[in-house]
Amino acid sequence: MAASGERAEISVRKRRVGIKRTETDSAVSGGEDGKHSSSDAEKEKPLLSLQPGTYWLTRIVLLRSVAFIYFVAFSVAYNQNKQLIGEHGLMPCKSYLRSVKRYVGGKIGMAAMAYTPSVLWFFDWSDMDANLDGIALLGMALSGFVLVMGMANMVIMLTLWVLYHSLVNVGQLWYSFGWESQLLETGFLAIFLCPVWTLSQVPHRCPPSLICIWTFRWLIVRIMLGAGLIKIRGDKCWRDLTCMDYHYETQPVPNPMSYYIHRSPWWFHRFETLSNHFVELIVPFFTFLGRRLCMVNGAIQILFQVVLIVSGNLSFLNWLTIVPSLACFDDASLGFLFRSGAGAKKAVLEIQSEDVAGRTPAPTKGMLIRQVVNISLGILIGCLSIPVVTNLLSSRQVMNTSFDPLRIVNTYGAFGSITKERTEVIFQGTLSPDPKDPEALWEEYQFMCKPGDVYRRPCLLSPYHYRLDWLMWFAAFQTYEQSEWVIHIAGRLLSNDSTVLSLLDHNPFQGRDSPRWVRGEHFRYKFSQPGSASAAQGKWWLRKRIGAYFPPVNLEGLRGYFQSRNWPHPHLQQNRK
Question: Where exactly are the structural domains of the chain?
């Protein structure tokens, strides 16, 4: 009986313990379930702030920035191409294309396209001015759309790239600046930021490729290292820190701030030069040291370019260099540029919330193909970068050079040497029948922006670009035999040619007879001293004559010169027009 009673008591105790364990297990289970449900609830909550590591907004900023540069570049082309490479331009692109056609065997085929990639091969050449205007206007329309809307697809960006490529490759001397290749490389990378067809600021099924973002970062690294290394290896003044004593006065097209910054104390110019070396040779490596230092690099590079924009007219070069710097920032750091609670920022927050909740959509076949394309882009840029990196490491570094015909990956650099004195070529004309007559009145032509009249304030132009003004800066420290196009301009001025005169700011013979003689005078220019008597008289510049750049010429005397170069004689051309 006692045994059976103990067994019964033990059985009761076990049941009680079982009940307690069940309650405990239920409590534990309920707690865990509560935690899971709490966690799930947190995941379901929409994010209130953008998280780092995504580049949806970065893509919008990059596309708008590239579109802005394209818009400026095509605007320059629309306003100046006819005068420079049009039917009656200084270097007609029709003549250039014909010479290429003869060189490759007289046929327009793959050889011609490989030598000079341009859609102009397929156009009717009977009205080349209309062709050039059509390309420029289409480029302005497409880039304006992307700039305003903040969205693009591969078709639009590829079209912009092909159109600008077509102009650069027939632009000859007038499109020989380093920023042309830089825009083409930047524009090529921008193609791969976009979906193929979709037009949306935030296309859910086409996330920005991290590979593409890194190609932009690699571009800014190469630009800055190229610029820094060419300086260190080039002019001695970069090593003894005196280059900035001259730069503001002797740069191609100074602006009003250049006038004042040039007179800064010597120690400030030394500080500028040291800062330049730090920004171009040290800071680019921050790109590879994590998110925060990468953003530091981007911020410093943008600030550096803004300083250059303020202190000179370097076309759209500095504006363009800002573009790849923007790739150093992700959505979290660029969110302040977008309106909260609406539009692209709201869409990105929703995408990030879905990612946190684990509701990322399964990749489609198209997304997988796109990943292959992105990987292929990375491999392409890597392979094409080999000669570029080799050039950077070489003691014989060259700058602003392309190693492939499509200019996909290029070398860059600027101001490897600094001119210590500013010289200018001034065109002068006279109605006198005898150019040697001491009583002859020589009247000066004025260009749009380059120094001429000492009383004219330096212009504020950037990001716009007067191509002829820039090339006149190069011509001034060469001879007219090295820059024969200068004599071509002189011949056009002798006939009061409206095409060339539209590139100038002032024609002293406007509404009068054409000049009988034109000459080129060589002057040395210096900024006047602020507060000096000259400045009080309104003079921004002081100048001293060096001598004749080219002797007085007239139309009859230039006939043989023009014929030997297959240039149409200005007088005959004027009659045709």
Answer: 56-411, 422-565
Distance of alpha carbon 161 from the chain centroid: 13
With b for 16 or more beta-carbon neighbours within 10 A and e for fewer, the 473-505 pattern comes to bebbeeebeebebbbbbbbbbbbbbebbbebbb
Please state, in angstroms and rounded to a whole number, the distance separating the CA atoms of residues 236 and 426. Answer: 30
**Per-residue pLDDT tens over the stretch 354-412:** 888 888 778 888 889 999 999 999 999 999 999 999 999 999 999 999 988 899 999 99
- Per DSSP bridges, beta strands 504-506 and 422-430 are unpaired
Number of helices and strands (H, E) in the chain? 23, 6
pTM equals: 0.90
Confidence of residue 17 (pLDDT cuts 50, 70, 90): very low
The answer to whether residues 447 and 505 touch, using CB atoms and an 8 Å cutoff, is: yes
Q: Which DSSP state fits 567?
A: P
> pLDDT tens, 74-117?
999 999 999 999 999 999 999 999 999 999 999 999 999 999 99
Is the Cβ–Cβ distance between 112 and 100 less than 8 Å? yes
**CB under 8 Å to 324, separation ≥6 — which residues?**
186, 189, 216, 217, 219, 220, 223
Contact in structure between 63 and 334 (CB atoms under 8 Å): no
User: Per DSSP, what are the bridge partners of residue 543?
Assistant: 525
Could you please report the per-residue DSSP string of 29-58? HHHHHHHHHHHHHHHHSPPSSPPTT--HHH
Calpha distance 484→414 (Å, rounded): 25
Cβ neighbours around 384 below 10 Å, total? 17
Helices 93-103 and 128-149 sit at what angle, rounded to 10 degrees?
A: 110
pLDDT digits (tens, 9 = 90+) for 164-202: 999 999 999 999 999 999 999 999 999 999 999 999 999
Distance, in Å, from the CA atom of 385 to the CA atom of 378, rounded to the nearest integer, reads: 10
**Residue carrying the six token digits 């095509």:** 74
In single-letter form, the type of residue at position 23 comes to E
Phi, psi of 429 (to 5 degrees): -130, 155
Phi, psi at residue 423, to the nearest 5°? -120, 150
Instruction: Please report, for residues 16, 19, 21, 23, 35, the alpha-carbon distance to residue 28 in angstroms, rounded to integers and kept in the order given.
Output: 18, 14, 10, 9, 10
548 closest CA partner among 439, 436, 448, 446: 436
- Closest by CA position to 214, among listed 414, 62, 438: 62
Question: Do 84 and 170 touch, CB atoms closer than 8 A?
Answer: no
What CA–CA distances, in Å, run from 131 to 138, 283, 319, 533, 547? Answer: 11, 44, 28, 52, 42
Whole-Å CA distances, 469 to 37, 260, 365, 479, 502: 70, 22, 52, 16, 13
For residue 75, give the 3-state DSSP assignment.
helix
